[in-house]
User: What shape does this take?
Amino acid sequence: MKIMKRVINILVAMTVGLMGFCTCACASEEANPPGKAVETPADATKWVETLLGDNPQVLEDAWLMTSQMKLAIALSGGMAKTAESLSSLGTIEKIGSAYEGELKGYKVFYVPCVFSAMSIDLIVVTDNGAVAGLQTGPYTGDKDEAAESDLFDSIELSLPVPSLQGELPGTLTVPKGEGPFPAVVLIQGSGPSDRDETMMNAKPFRDIAEGLAEKGIAVYRFDKRTYVYGVELMDDHQATLVDESIADAVAAVQLLATQDKIDPSRIFVLGHSLGGNAIPAIDQALQDQPVSACGYILMAASTRPLDQLMREQYDYLYSLMPEITSEQQAEKDALFAELDKLENLDSLTENDMIAGAYAPYWKWLAEYDVLKTAQEITKPCLLLQGEEDYQVTVEDFEIWKDAFGEKENWQLVLYPGLIHIFTTGQKSEGAAAYAHAEKVDAQVIEDIAAFVNQTEAK
Assistant: This one.
């Protein structure tokens, strides 16, 4: 099956690093007239419609752009070439209405776009009405969609982030009834991610939250720090996995313990992918807090170095291609050359960025011994793995099994036919498997619910 080059790039960006994909850098300066300004959501929608239309090159003269944006577009081969880079997402099927936001002082417009292979937001960054940048982000076309059920209520609950003087929007899904209910905090994998952990057309965290709530278990999920504050974190060269996930996981447990209908003695933490890898560190950090976790669920949690997994993912995805073009080979060689720099971490400075993350991020991971730290967990743990997962493979599951398969507080389950996000699929589909609008397998939710219900507070 042919794998789309841009989809590969986006999926890898979701797997590692603090940055999102950015086509052009922003520049704060006066625009170069003439041209129409992008000042309203309607303007931004029209701009994107033109970009994805038959003649994207007209944007170069008909609309205002900063001089640095003009230079970036010229260096990339023109606006038509920029539009062509998005064609690997498939045929455009729907362009939603733009809505206004702000990123680090810039006015931005989020334009939800549905392509045949993937749904994303195109984010038009402006400076005094001139287009200063173009980014892609997770799809928000259904951001106002609220689940309606006779079995649970969905409550908006934001997580404070004092260090950024802000908060992370979130949703607490609570079973109907008096309670108190056991609860689960959901922690995403690396890279920017919304509260649903949206990946193409799949929303695994929403599936888990609603599935567990229907079984009498409350769930709290929130937009990730790198999703909400991606631009601000670009300036934080010291950021590590603690800043990306661990600190917010700890804070979420404390916040959940104060909520009505929640049993503070029965709060669990579920981590997916790198979020699962972070579970031992989260357990360690919770030891000094007023409220700790009652137990943990690790889904597709890696044990091996992140850069090693990235190499394996790229090798596998490229192996699925009928042939590799010279451009694709150059892209792969460039990434591997970046990862080679991690072999000598002591030579890197805090300003050195490798695969989307600064050197301190990688140094923290190198010093973090996940298996050794996991040995110190005394609370019950449930580890789940999909057999068709090419991102975190059965090899990692076997490592966990060798280390903890005989420990009384650990349960390990391997699921045939499930991919990285625990929906049905085949490894041979590669990244295209995420385009299916599948829901998390019902047995996975059953197993998590059984684990929570059989685990008593200590």
In short: Confidence is low (pLDDT under 50) at residues 1-33.
